[in-house]
Amino acid sequence: MIVAPSVLSLDYSRMKEQVDELNASKAEWMHFDVMDGHFVPNLTFGPDILKGFCKMSPLVKDVHLMVSDPFFFSDVFARAGADYITFHAEALDNDDRSIRDLCDHIHSLGCKAGISVKPFTRIDAVRPFLKQFDLFLVMSVEPGFGGQAFLPASIAKIETLRHWLDNAHPEALIEVDGGINEHTGKLCRDAGADVLVAGSYVFKNDIQKAVESLCL
Ligand code: DX5
Ligand code: ZN
After folding, report:
1. Pocket of ligand 1 contains residue 199 by CB under 6 Å
2. Which residue stretches of the chain have pLDDT < 70?
3. What pLDDT does 94 receive?
4. For position 100, what pLDDT does the model report?
5. Alpha helices, H only, 29-141
6. H/E element holding 30?
7. Hey, how many other C-beta atoms are within 10 angstroms of the C-beta on 90?
8. What is the pLDDT of residues 28-79, one digit of tens each?
9. Is 93 a catalytic residue?
10. Of 36, 134, 177, 194, which residue is the catalytic one?
């Protein structure tokens, strides 16, 4: 299991100390929630923050774009050091052509591409793109804020995706984001998830132990 702590929940008054702990933990990825105050009612990081994290940590940089203009922000965050860039199908009104174009564009920037759906968007929205994307992100809370409770309906989405991908694109990764703790993380793993994003659970507990409990 790949664990991707979300630095949305990091204590920025103890940034260096907490990033050092992440570096010493079993986390392989670091998750960046980019919010534009428009696609979601919250505002977070610009590219200079990502550049700073790139200097502080060798972890894979997993950028989750919760923005209305993912074409613009893909360029910005690819230049800043993103390894994975994931955008929301809803931001492009689930338009097939635009989704394929942006996926190709992200690949042309040298990054892996991910597609995400919100909790109340059917998982069928990503079915036309199974072969094209490297990562499929199932949102298990409404995007915008950390600290929300895991939505149990996410489990069926993960199982469906796993089934589709086992046939169409077994190397693609299924990531789950929102309300992940030791208990919900296990449910996601059993359903077929490969990557667990966790914010509050990691940063409000002993960082190394919390990460380890999700690695199982
Ligand atoms: C929500 C974000 C999540 C969030 C997860 O919009 O995409 O990545 O940080 O936080 P927790 O683990 O606290 O639910
Ligand atoms: Zn996220």
Report:
1. yes
2. none
3. 85
4. 98
5. 47-56, 70-79, 96-108
6. strand 29-35
7. 17
8. 999 999 999 999 999 999 999 999 999 999 999 999 999 999 999 999 999 9
9. no
10. 177
Q: CA–CA separation, 149 vs 101, rounded Å?
A: 34
Residue 33 among the catalytic residues: yes
- Three-class DSSP category at 8: helix
Q: Is 32 left (phi over 0), alpha (psi -120 to 50) or beta?
A: beta
40 Cα nearest atom in ligand 1: 6
CB 36 within 8 A of CB 18: no
Centre of ligand 2 to C-alpha 6, Å, is 7
Q: Which ligand has an atom closest to residue 35 CA? A: 1
Q: Tell me the Cα Rg of the chain.
A: 16
Flag whether the pTM goes above 0.85.
yes
Question: In residues, how long is the chain?
Answer: 216
pLDDT of residue 216: 77
- Do 65 and 88 meet the contact criterion of CB atoms below 8 Å apart? yes
pLDDT of residue 51: 98
